[in-house]
Specification:
43% of the residues lie in helices and 15% in strands. Helix 9 runs parallel beside helix 11 and helix 9 packs antiparallel against helix 12. It binds ribulose-5-phosphate. The site of ribulose-5-phosphate has 13 residues, from helix 10.
Amino acid sequence: MDWGMANRMAQLIQRDGRCLFLPVDHGYFQGPTHRLENPRHTLEPLMPYTDAIFITRGVLRSCVDPDRAKPIILRVSGGVSMVGKDLAYEGITTSIEEAIRLNVAALGLSIFVGTDYEHDSLLNLSHLVNEGEKYGIPVMAVTAVGRELEKRDVRYLSLCCRIAAELGARVVKTYWCPGFEKVVEGCPVPVVMAGGPQVDTELEVFQFVHDGLQKGAIGVNLGRNIWQNDFPVAMIQAIRAIVHESASPEEAQQLYDTVKSQALVRPG
Ligand code: 5RP
């Protein structure tokens, strides 16, 4: 691996082989998502606990100070919205020159396997990998499901992750699912887990994160289940303990409760 690529991968994956990415890219198709209405406000208290942030160029420039940033995974796919016809109809929104100018650690793009736009999104990935590899910038592929959350099963996610790796993604972001070890086994590059919409209890999040790591994921790219929580700083600290300190779900819950009890009640 060339020095630049190796250096960028090391910015993402920490010395313990694990990572905690914080995605705040949701606005690129959801608009002002609940509790991400003001990205600077959401991000600032969480920044110390993340290894990298997943973000679009617009929010990066307007809401993150360059002298206080963490490594950047730049979201470069888009062109759709929640009110449009099809969330799968994404293109590449951001040039490689812009990514270099922003000094990013990685590029991130969604693929939509099994949709009408499967071919387009897979060629988008291939094109992005070609560009990224030229300049030593890794690509993280996101196995997106759009509105069809029920797609998140082991057969479908294994298929998506393997295809993403075959096309050259250096990291694949997918969802946790029962039988997750099969997803990881079939994917020859590191896998990180997204959270999806907020689940009912914190413990459920701690359990699936812990389980996924036991089954071979190297970390998380977890957004709404952190920053939509009433106590996001407590949440991210608890998840960090699972990812980087091998905490159990119960230990994470204790940490969450402790940090929560010290925090002021979140306004709004
Ligand atoms: C949204 C994304 C997010 O990065 C991804 O879904 C992770 O966030 P969450 O944990 O909220 O699902 O790709 O465009």
